Amino acid sequence: MKKRIITLAGLMALSCALAVGCGNSTSQTETQSAAQTEAASETQVQTEETQEAESAAETTADTEATEAAATLEDGTYTADFNTDSSMFQVNEMYDGKGTLTVKDGKMTIHITLRSTNIVNLYPGLAEDAQKDGAELLQPVVETVDYNDGEPAEEVNAFDVPVPAIDEEFDLALIGTKGKWYDHKVSVSNPVKAEE
């Protein structure tokens, strides 16, 4: 009987030790889980705050661009013409700039290109330019003198409608090889021309 009591007491002590050991493990896991949940919540709050700040900044930038276009008085300006391609640029004699004309709230920029290799432009996507009835922008041939002792060169120039200042817009082009290409362009930094 004594042996049984001692064995039973030993088993109870062992059970208690196991229960306490496992209890700490569960408690520790719960603590770690709570810490991870709290960290995830903080990260989510920070992400939401960052997204809200970015959204507010984008809205402000959009508003400023719209206000800039709206504040341009009728008249003539010099403005930067920015493209997404080194093959489609304003002639180097014009330093990346064109002549922006504002009349009755509508804007058009006159750009002089590097050659006559660009045959037409289209304000939109290349896919739409190929549809029946698409109104293509026609070139005007201009003469550029590079002041390098060589004869002046004929190049194409275009009058491109500008929907907004400092905002990218689609402008498709077709070259002498007959293939249309999509491009993103923008007009920025308008400076009133001296009269």
From TrEMBL:
<feature type="signal peptide">
    <location>
        <begin position="1"/>
        <end position="19"/>
    </location>
</feature>
<feature type="region of interest" description="Disordered">
    <location>
        <begin position="31"/>
        <end position="64"/>
    </location>
</feature>
<dbReference type="InterPro" id="IPR037250">
    <property type="entry name" value="NEAT_dom_sf"/>
</dbReference>
<protein>
    <recommendedName>
        <fullName>Major membrane immunogen, membrane-anchored lipoprotein</fullName>
    </recommendedName>
</protein>
<keyword id="KW-0732">Signal</keyword>
